[in-house]
């Protein structure tokens, strides 16, 4: 990836603007995709960002960046966002022209596809003007070198609306285990782990799904390693609650770590097999 090759402007919130005719910023990823793979991430987005979508004075724009070889996840995101905002417009972006061509037959009212990368071009795809209220980039940066993550974040955050949200992370092939970072125009805010609890042996198993910014930081001395260690310890201590089911054990685990870590979200989110912590508590040193 030639960082910044397709943009003008600098900084998160700085209004990076793609030059006309410039090639997309990024490289083609493997493109693996399955139906419902991102349902846990989408469920969190709807719950946490639904209020911002509802209060938008104009039809909000959402971007699915790097939807892959098939458009299923973009189509599903559009449907899930419409539960809270029926007039939402969703733009699916891919670098590979062949993927854009394959997705185009699925376009329709409020759903369009185009070619683009981290610079997030917005014109000419049947999408409204203005900045996106949401950008989702799932299983994209995991395939890049770690040192390229800050620039990619900066480019995408620089395209967000003032109250917009970037959700960037990874999951396994069928969506049982997720980890994602939520970022505003100013930069990263939180890290969320989410899992199908019935398949979870320990919270530490989610380490293999950490976003690229953290995947190589799960070593002693790094905050994210301490976070996963404390989750595992609390999970072990909550073993007696396993007799009541994996969910009760998870709820006890989250309640325990919340005494020492800045855990976000309420009981309803934790019941879904999620735990969210402030980015400042797990950011790389």
Automatic annotation (TrEMBL):
<feature type="region of interest" description="Disordered">
    <location>
        <begin position="1"/>
        <end position="35"/>
    </location>
</feature>
<keyword id="KW-0489">Methyltransferase</keyword>
<protein>
    <submittedName>
        <fullName>Class I SAM-dependent methyltransferase</fullName>
    </submittedName>
</protein>
<dbReference type="GO" id="GO:0032259">
    <property type="term" value="P:methylation"/>
</dbReference>
<dbReference type="InterPro" id="IPR029063">
    <property type="entry name" value="SAM-dependent_MTases_sf"/>
</dbReference>
<keyword id="KW-0808">Transferase</keyword>
<feature type="compositionally biased region" description="Low complexity">
    <location>
        <begin position="17"/>
        <end position="31"/>
    </location>
</feature>
<dbReference type="GO" id="GO:0008168">
    <property type="term" value="F:methyltransferase activity"/>
</dbReference>
């Amino acid at each position: 990836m030639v960082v910044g090759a397709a943009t003008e402007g600098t900084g998160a919130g700085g209004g990076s603007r793609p030059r006309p005719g410039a090639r997309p910023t990024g490289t083609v990823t493997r493109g693996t995709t399955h139906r419902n793979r991102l349902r846990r991430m989408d469920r969190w987005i709807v719950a946490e960002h639904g209020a911002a979508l509802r209060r938008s004075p104009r039809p909000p724009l959402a971007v699915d960046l790097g939807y892959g070889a098939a458009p299923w996840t973009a189509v599903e995101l559009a449907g899930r966002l419409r539960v809270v905002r029926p007039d939402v417009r969703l733009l699916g972006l891919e670098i590979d022209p062949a993927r854009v061509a394959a997705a185009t037959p699925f376009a329709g009212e409020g759903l369009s596809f185009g070619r683009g990368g981290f610079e997030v071009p917005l014109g000419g795809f049947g999408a409204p003007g203005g900045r996106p209220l949401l950008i989702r980039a799932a299983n994209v940066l995991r395939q890049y070198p770690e040192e390229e993550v800050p620039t990619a974040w900066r480019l995408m955050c620089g395209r967000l609306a003032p109250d917009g949200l970037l959700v960037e992370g990874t999951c396994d092939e069928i969506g049982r285990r997720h980890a994602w970072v939520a970022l505003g125009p100013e930069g990263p805010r939180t890290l969320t782990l989410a899992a199908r609890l019935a398949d979870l042996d320990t919270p530490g198993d989610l380490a293999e799904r950490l976003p690229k910014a953290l995947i190589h930081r799960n070593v002693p001395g790094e905050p994210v390693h301490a976070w996963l260690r404390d989750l595992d310890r609390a999970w072990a201590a909550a073993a007696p609650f396993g007799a009541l089911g994996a969910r009760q054990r998870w709820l006890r685990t989250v309640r325990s770590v919340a005494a020492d870590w800045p855990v976000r979200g309420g009981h309803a989110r934790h019941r879904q097999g999620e735990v969210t912590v402030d980015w400042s508590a797990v950011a790389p040193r």
